[in-house]
Amino acid sequence: MNPPITLIPGWRLGRGPLAPLANALGAEWYDLPGYRETPFTADFADAVTRLIATVLPGTVLVGWSLGAMIALAAAARAPQHIGGVVVISGTPSFVTRDGWSHGLTPEALAEFRAAIAEDEPAMLPRFVGGFNRGEPESKTLTAEILATADPAPSLEILLAGLDWLATVDLRAELPSITTPVLVIHGENDPLIPCAAGEAIAQTVPHGKWLPIPNAAHAPFLRHQAAIVTAVSRFVS
Known about the structure:
Layout: E1 5-8, H1 19-25, E2 28-29, H2 44-54, E3 59-64, H3 66-77, E4 82-88, H4 106-131, H5 138-148, H6 155-167, E5 181-186, H7 194-203, E6 207-212, H8 224-235
Parallel strand pairs: 1-2, 1-3, 3-4, 4-5, 5-6
């Protein structure tokens, strides 16, 4: 019998864009803090603790983008409880730091945060369109994501997630993740460079690496069959 699978969405968009993947995998949901029924916390460590306490032992966490960061942190802090992690378009550090060039500059993220605080609805199409650059059908894909995205949570919740992206650095924790990790990443991802995902796969003790050609930050929409096959094999 395969272990349970829990899917953790990324920042702002919620379950909607990931719903076909969740259905294909038979996955349960764990929403980011403040989204839907998940209680809000502005503390990343507290969010990770709550996730660990919620999922059953042996659960395989499938996280997209910010959701992948929380999944990795949970596996690092509770390796005997988390059965495995599937990282989709993930990174240990969203922004560049000393010794880490695979991300946005802190200044670019700060500018984006300020723009979200000023006018989130106007920024959403630019955000989604930006991370779809590199997809052959980027405009169509952007329209699909915007049409299926969940309603926005409060601005406080959105800004807290961006603050996590600015401050969380999991690089030192990757070697302590003893559970298996499958890293899936679009080769053309303009938001989180493919090299960031590859670094995860190379650093964790039991990493598997699956780059997706001709895919950007949401590879599960146009390449769902390949991803479902890979995740199903990983889980079983």
